[in-house]
Amino acid sequence: MDHFARLGLPAALDLDAAALDRAYFSLQRQWHPDRFVSKPPEDRARASAEAASVNEAYRTLKDPLSRAFYMAGLAGVDLPGDGKTIDDPDLLMEAMEAREALHDAATPEAVDRLAAQARVEVQEALAGLGSLFLANDRAALRKALLRLRYLDKFAEEARARRMNLDRSNA
What does the pLDDT read at residue 38? Predict the structure, then answer.
């Protein structure tokens, strides 16, 4: 059973956050292991497994980026699993230039501008995924998702750079 079916939700990039929360909390109440303490061992084991599956589905679907990657997996899009591989020369150049700009950013404000631009690009890329899924364009989905992965990693690096600048300026 996929995560969408487990939570009784349609398989969609744009999920109603309130519906996701309601489905999760309802199933969490139903399968919480504390409700099965006095039950036979088989029932306790099933409740524990169901609760873990519900938690995993919720964590995956709650985050738009992880939801997109999950849907890509369901659609058969082949993505590198290590999170470090960039096999697109244009994306590799973009990543190198952005990291160089981040390295050269000397003030927290400069880092914030780079991070804000990356957030805008993430939102734009996420918005464009729907049409790629509808067209079942696996090559374009792969490319877009690799770029999203890079942008997400860049955001982490920007946060770390910002913290380092804040410490050195304190």
Answer: 94
pLDDT, residue 83, reads 55
Amino acid identity, position 48: S
pLDDT by residue (tens digit) across 46-70? 999 999 999 999 999 999 999 999 9
The pair of three-digit structure tokens given for residue 104, joined into one six-digit string: 């050269």
pTM of the model: 0.84
pLDDT in tens, 70-97: 999 999 998 876 555 667 889 889 999 9
Rounded Cα–Cα distance for residues 34 and 47 (Å): 9
Q: Which two three-digit tokens encode residue 149?
A: 């992965």
**DSSP letters spanning the chain:** --HHHHHT----SS--HHHHHHHHHHHHHHH-GGGGTTS-HHHHHHHHHHHHHHHHHHHHHHSHHHHHHHHHHHTT----SSS-----HHHHHHHHHHHHHHHH--SHHHHHHHHHHHHHHHHHHHHHHHHHHHHT-HHHHHHHHHHHHHHHHHHHHHHHHHHHHHHHH-
Residue with tokens 């969609």: 12
Closest CA to 95 of 138, 157, 9, 161: 157
